[in-house]
Specification:
alpha/beta, globular, GMP Synthetase, Chain A, domain 3, three-stranded mixed beta sheet, 2 domains, Histidine-containing Protein, Chain: A
């Protein structure tokens, strides 16, 4: 039986891969999360740091869930930005709250842990859905900020827990003030917490 010549297919695949690399469409995949090179180009973090942040989040998730007591009794969200890790959610005791932070501090490359876990029962699905809605509204509101040369709202990481909005990113002081003020005006926001790193 004669086998078909696969050379044209291989050439086409090679050309496509080369094209993707040249135009910046190739995905960077870490732990199941993907960031396109176009997105990385808008980020003030280096591409390596973006990958490190994704890896830290995955390692933290796995490490926390290895602790059966912590995992079964708590609701914990992990967000890493520029190697700074934000922990939000609820855990039933202060001891477990501190244990979660210590687990994350031991992860390589982590520079700082913001432990915003509260001692309480897990939040309801309604509360979490409301937080997701608030996050979306804040992100959309940031696109309406005008008059800041070079400002890119996609550089701001927004995390909402129980109506409290946490803002992370590498920003100028002027950008940070505008972002925080915009977030405060969004309906449903209880409090705005700035965790920015300043570049000026």
């Amino acid at each position: 039986m004669k086998h078909p010549d696969r050379t044209p297919c291989l050439l086409a695949a090679t050309a496509l891969a080369t094209c993707m690399l040249l135009v910046g469409c190739a995905p960077l995949v870490v732990g199941g999360a993907a960031a396109t090179t176009a997105e990385v180009a808008h980020d003030r973090r280096t591409a390596g740091t973006v990958i490190d942040d994704q890896a830290i989040e995955l390692k933290a998730f796995r490490a926390i869930h290895k602790d059966k007591t912590l995992a079964s009794q708590s609701h914990i969200s992990v967000t890493s930005y520029n190697l700074n890790v934000l922990l939000t959610g609820e855990t039933p005791t202060e001891a477990l709250r501190q244990r979660a932070a210590e687990i994350v501090r031991r992860i390589p490359r982590v520079r700082r842990v913001y432990n915003e876990l509260v001692v309480a029962g897990p939040s309801s699905l309604t509360s979490r859905s409301n937080d997701t809605l608030i996050t979306t509204k804040v992100k959309l509101a940031l696109f309406h900020i005008k008059g800041l040369k070079g400002f890119d709202p996609t550089r701001v990481k927004v995390v909402t827990e129980r109506g409290n909005v946490y803002l992370m990113g590498l920003l100028t002081h002027e950008e940070a003030d505008a972002v925080a003020e915009t977030a405060r005006r969004v309906g449903g926001v209880q409090r705005v917490i700035k965790l920015f790193e300043y570049i000026d």
